[in-house]
Amino acid sequence: MRIRTTFGAAACAVGIALSFPVSAHAADGPFLYSYGDGQVGALDSPPSRECITLPQVADESVPPAHTPYNETDSAATVFSGADCTGDYFTLRPDGGHASARLKLRSVVFS
Q1: pTM score of the predicted model
Q2: Other residues' Cβ atoms within 10 Å of the Cβ of residue 91
Q3: Which residues contact 36 (CB under 8 A, 6 or more apart)?
Q4: How confident is the model at residue 25 (pLDDT cuts 50, 70, 90)?
């Protein structure tokens, strides 16, 4: 009888914990990139698991961004196309970066 009571209480506690809304996780810190004639764009603590098309380079008629620098606490996967399409490369968290040869238009954080 004692085992059933303990199991029932544990199951109830798990059910209550799962009923609370989970807050959206964000990648903590800045993600920087260059675009245009030496301009620098930044995403500050961007949302995780959500594709972000960089607004300055969303239009395919303008040159893509380059030289990304990931200072967030999450891995950043950058894509050559808008809407997380095309070739991709993953930058490690806390300082992952790439040269001007890496072109990007969108990014998603783990």
Answers
A1: 0.77
A2: 22
A3: 56, 62, 63
A4: confident
